[in-house]
Amino acid sequence: xxxxIGGDHAAxxxxxxxxxHLRGAGHDVVDHGPEAYDAQDDYPVFVLRAAAAVAAEEGSxxxxxxxxxxxxxxxxxxxxxxxxxxxxxxxxxxxAREHNEAQVVSIGARFTGEEVAKQIVDTFVATxxxxxxxxARRVGMVTxxxxxxxxxxxxxxxxx
Length: 160
What we know:
Blueprint lengths: L1 E5 L5 H13 L3 E4 L11 H14 L4 E6 L3 H8 L6 E3 L3 H11 L3 E5 L5 H13 L6 H16 L12
Parallel strand pairs: 1-2, 1-3, 3-5, 4-5
């Protein structure tokens, strides 16, 4: 599987660990940076590139990393077509894929140890979208809103 990864200084060491881990598992990992530790770098530079690459390459997945993972998730979600989820446990990574068809997982390096982070990415990569009607319907609503800006109809609304 092709996996795009990007982060910032706060997650620089964890990013290196995860790149090695994913490559060791046989994945084709594209590292969008940073290439060196810089305490003043800005996560959008690297995270947006990773998320945009996932959006451009159907079937690929992404991992974005920062201190908390919050800003990185928010940035990745600004890329059209991307659904990014913050995960601090493997169970959240599984649900993000199963129920929300997330293509990007965000991890906070200051709150997630290396072993748990490895479990999160392994689970994320190994889990498929269930495509259950209720989940597909919800993902469809979000996708439609992203494209049109129109809110989904309220329950019971006649549309007249």
